[in-house]
Design brief:
This protein is of the alpha+beta class. It contains seven helices and 22 strands. The strands form six sheets. A seven-stranded mixed β-sheet has the order 1-3-2-6-10-11-14, with helices on both faces. A four-stranded antiparallel β-sheet has the order 18-17-20-21, with no helix packed on it. Strands 7-8-9 form a three-stranded antiparallel β-sheet. The model has no long low-confidence stretch (mean pLDDT about 95).
Length: about 375
Amino acid sequence: MSCYWPTDMNAVETGAPRLHALIIGVGNYYHLGLDAKKPSKLLSGLAPLTTTPLSAKRIASWLESHCQNPACPLGSIELLLSPEETVKRGDGSIVAIEDATMANISTAFKRWYGRCHAQKANMAVFYFAGHGISTISHFLLPADFGNPDEPDDWENCINFSDMQVGMAKCAAQTQMFFVDACRDAPIAALTQKNPHGRSLAAASFQDKVDLSAAYFASSEGRKAYGRDDEETFFCKALIMCLEGVGARKAGPKWRIDAASLSSALVSVMETLGTTENLPLTSDCRVQKPVPLHYPNGGAVVVKVDCEPDQANAEANISVMQGSNIIHMSQAGERRPWMGRVTAGPTKVEVTFATYPPEIVDEEMTPPTYDIEVRR
């Protein structure tokens, strides 16, 4: 079973606008890696992943518990994981999630497509975390990619570029695709005469949608990253954005829309790259402000970096909102420092043993606020 939410599929609402999500997290690859019993003839050097199933579960859990959009509430979540596992829903119930093989993904995709296609006001959300490669198109690799028993090495492969185009046939006029995967081109893939993969959907020139938005965890030709046994950095950035960092004021409310999410993801990934000392990149170029989620408030990612290195080593950082100390970081801890605060008046004090202090007292607004201290 790949239905994560709701617990009763007969309860899925199709008569009113709903957000329907298909979430895939591939960590175990049958034919890739050094321990594969039947290794692939293509891209066999790609290793299993620990970050991607965790990321898929985190996104599914967040949607289930936090997604708020009165005009288009959550309708369903399809979830596939490799390795397959039993997971706990937010209400404490248990569900066995199917393996993220090509066949299971194809079947779940059809169910998801059918729900999204029920009416134009629906929102279609797709999230994939796993291996990806980019040559003439961007390809996503299910758990059974590269089965040597198949005459076609690309049989178990998703052509994401064609899939996004093909989704224009779906009636849902808001479509958002989150691709948490690398976009580099391994030499073995570049030597292939006809890389292809399956598009899962096909459209004609007459088919159009109001918004087809793609959010990539890496720029073209670059890798995506994550710490072992943690969510990917893109997943962490996406959750931060959804929890307010990607918000902007819409009258008295805070709103996250497709465009604000796009710019926030780029900014947060850049900040994470600096604090993690990694070449993190993202590719999000969405300009249309279609509402996605209404968080309880706005939030800001604050970064503090000092020069010279000695100043960073000496820096004591305290962050206050009103009379409350939100964050404290002592000298000798990791630098640059990064933390999240509620949008609004914020005071940051940076003190040193041998340098004069730095005090910033500002109205901070999403998505990010950088403090550069030069001594």
